Amino acid sequence: MYKTRKLDKPWILGALAIMLAALLWSLDGVFIRPKFYIFPAGLIVLLEHALGLIVLAPFIILSWPKIKLLKTKEWAAIGWVSFFGGALGTLMITQAFFAAIGGEVTFATVVLLQKLQPVFALLLARLIIGEKLKRSFYGWAAVAILAAYFLAFGKTGLNLGEINWLDSAAFYSVIAAFAFGSSTVFGKRIVNHLDFKSTAGLRFAVTAVLMLIYSLFTGDLFKINTVGAVYWGYLALIVFTSGAAAMFIYYYGLKRVTASASTILELFWPFSAVILDYFINHNVLSWAQIAAASVLLLAFIKIVTRETAPKFEFMAKIRGGSGRGRVLGFPTINLDKTGIDINYGIYLVESRINGKIYKGLLHFGQKETFNEPVSLELYLKERLENLNDQEIKIKEIRKIREVKRFRDAEGLKKQMEEDAKELGN
């Protein structure tokens, strides 16, 4: 009798959200952004982020109690994503496409080099946040990247001799690929520790400030009076499609999948762009493109339905705490959280202490009754003494729930009693 494989619903929802965001980005690149060719790229990037900030600002205000507790590590990640992914990356890819539209360089140069993005992201995900997925994922990732190249050049063919590697647009494309790829990785670090709505809002806020400074320095801001009513309409369309709306959806997805999976699923951008071009502009696909699109779609299906979020496993040092858990009747072991890059939440885990395995509950995140800094705490049914300064191994079994806010200690105690049922008798 065959065992039915249980699907990872959060993973599937997250993956589909990434693909939907990529679809919206393809609408931008094919049908909207080229209309702004006559304007300075810096001005357009500033305006789309300023308008997007207006839409997302309420999420920043509502989540400010959590935001102000972010550590230097998280703020550095927000700064990186805003500068590289928001300001520099968007500016560079806009400049590159404008150069291609103006005939300075072929679109092949821009597209080919920009496709380095998943390569950068996969490497940085492994090096920076320690993502290590199953071999099957990396196999399908390689298939997806190759299929994306054939999809992009399946009609005209890829003639490397036509590519001007020394043109400024080639430099713009490589910088954009690195910027977007690295932003996927650092974006994952942010949504691990903050809700996706606030993450999107902060990204637009910081990027808008950076682009305002840039536009003042270059003088682009003073050309805002040249933007007519029609183009303001296009900018509003960007905000509710490929801009703020897409980023909102994207971070919802990134919170539920790995950065490595996200960068491959973002290849839905060229897939959807070619398909839209076929239906809207009636540009017939070549057989090579049809084959590449089919293979890429298969890779997406495999990644969405067959892959799952990897279980974490790490070593942590035991340290002293305030004893608050003991007051509630649930004494916890406080752990050093240095270097831990996982989602906030309550987890059922296995812990190895002094050579023995104990099942426990792991809390990672802000205190659930107080606006205090992040804590990493382990609750065990067994009472273990004199554990300070020891190192223990923690291995995830499954996530039980998100970190919640409780009005009082009594509410938290009732929830902890419910959580403790996961440990069994």
TrEMBL record:
GO terms for cellular component: membrane. SUPFAM superfamilies: Multidrug resistance efflux transporter EmrE, Riboflavin kinase-like. Keywords: ATP-binding, Flavoprotein, FMN, Membrane, Nucleotide-binding, Transferase, Transmembrane, Transmembrane helix. The chain crosses the membrane at residues 12-32, 38-64, 76-101, 107-125, 137-158, 170-188, 200-217, 229-252, 264-280, 286-305. It holds the Pfam family Flavokinase. One of its GO terms (biological process) is riboflavin biosynthetic process. It is found in: Membrane. It catalyses: riboflavin + ATP = FMN + ADP + H(+). Its main location: membrane. Its EC number is 2.7.1.26. It comes from the Bacteria. PANTHER family: EAMA DOMAIN-CONTAINING PROTEIN, INNER MEMBRANE TRANSPORTER. This is riboflavin kinase.
